[in-house]
Write a structure and sequence with these properties.
Elements: E1 9-12, E2 15-18, H1 29-33, E3 36-38, E4 41-46, E5 49-53, H2 55-68, H3 77-90, E6 96-104, E7 118-125, H4 133-137, E8 140-144, H5 165-177, E9 182-186, E10 192-195, E11 199-204, E12 207-211, H6 221-232, E13 237-240, H7 244-248, E14 252-257, E15 261-268, E16 271-272, H8 280-295, E17 304-306
Parallel strand pairs: 8-9, 8-15, 12-13
Antiparallel strand pairs: 1-2, 1-7, 3-6, 4-5, 4-6, 5-17, 6-7, 9-10, 11-12, 11-14, 14-15, 15-16
């Protein structure tokens, strides 16, 4: 990850501290057991000033993730929203990627985390296009991973938990080792689930499909945006079980995510998708999505929180 603000400030347990001082002990619970929940969201530079995209919704998901993992947060959702605005202001950023995280800190080493404090951090940094600049306009080459997403009742897929992302690392590293930009995981039934850090959409004959929550997908906030924007454009997104082979015969396939935004896929497993470039429905959704973010106007869904 690039763009660390070494001379910047991080919001750490209610205080703005120097970047270099935002540290944890090596015996903290989170380092040994992955006991953290986190978020990733973007702040965009608009003519009306910096605007954080779906800030309250991201913080709601953070609170939900903590609740699923029985992690008592010492701050309210409203306080986390305020902290995010503070850290953008403190670092004088017009555009940024925000990383809020809550984790079990230093206290005990057993699996039982209750004697460990819950520490909360909100950091901001510069971060470009997650899958590369070319990804937005042309598309990326991906593969179906040999690693599946977790079965129900093993790890809660609806929680954005740090430990879950070890699975994501396996998916992504395998793809990179084989010369692809990203991987697509299947669920426990062999249906399409998601990318290592993105939700996925499939277009066929003018219809848009995306895997349902039963396929072990994270309830993505950009995923929700695309479903709403598609409705604005006259399309209906069908949340269904997506067979693997549907990917190969699709007219268009694209990723969504707070980091990936809306990124087309041009090939899967060396099979060209559609015309091998961004398709027309993907482009329409992209343009609608980025027009809201670039201008800060026509935000009828109320997705932008202006920092100033």
């Amino acid at each position: 990850m690039s763009g660390f603000l070494e001379d910047g400030k991080i919001w750490f347990n209610g205080q703005l501290v120097d970047w270099k001082d935002a540290t944890v002990h090596v015996m903290s619970h989170v380092l040994h057991y992955g006991s953290a929940v986190f978020e990733g969201l973007r702040c965009y530079d608009t003519p009306k000033g910096p605007a954080i995209f779906r800030l309250d919704d991201h913080m709601r998901r953070l609170v939900d993730s903590a609740k699923i993992y029985r992690m008592p947060l010492p701050y309210t959702r409203a306080e986390l929203v305020k902290a995010s605005i503070e850290v953008i202001k403190a670092n004088n950023l017009a555009e940024a990627y925000l990383r809020p995280i809550a984790f079990r800190g230093y206290g005990s080493l057993g699996v039982d985390p209750r004697d460990c404090p819950v520490d909360v951090v909100v950091a901001a940094m510069a971060w470009g296009k997650y899958l590369g600049d070319e990804a937005i306009n042309i598309g990326v080459d991906v593969r179906v991973s040999s690693w599946n997403r977790m079965r129900p009742n093993t790890f809660p897929a609806m929680a954005k938990c740090a430990a879950n992302y070890m699975n994501s690392q396996l998916i992504n590293l395998e793809a990179k080792a084989d010369g692809y930009v990203e991987g697509i995981s299947l669920d426990h039934n062999g249906h399409v689930s998601e990318g290592s850090g993105e939700n996925i959409f499939v277009v066929r004959d003018g219809r848009i499909f995306t895997p349902s929550f039963s396929s072990s997908v994270l309830p993505g906030i950009t995923r929700d945006c695309v479903i709403k924007l598609a409705a604005d454009l006259g399309y209906t997104v069908e949340e269904v079980a997506v067979p693997r082979e549907m990917l190969y015969i699709a007219d268009e396939v694209f990723f969504t995510g707070s980091a990936a935004e809306v990124s087309p896929i041009k090939s899967i497993d060396r099979i060209q998708i559609g015309e091998g470039r961004r398709g027309p429905i993907t482009e329409k959704l992209q343009k609608r999505f980025f027009s809201i973010l670039a201008t800060g106007v026509d935000d009828k869904h109320g997705w932008l929180t202006f920092v100033n």
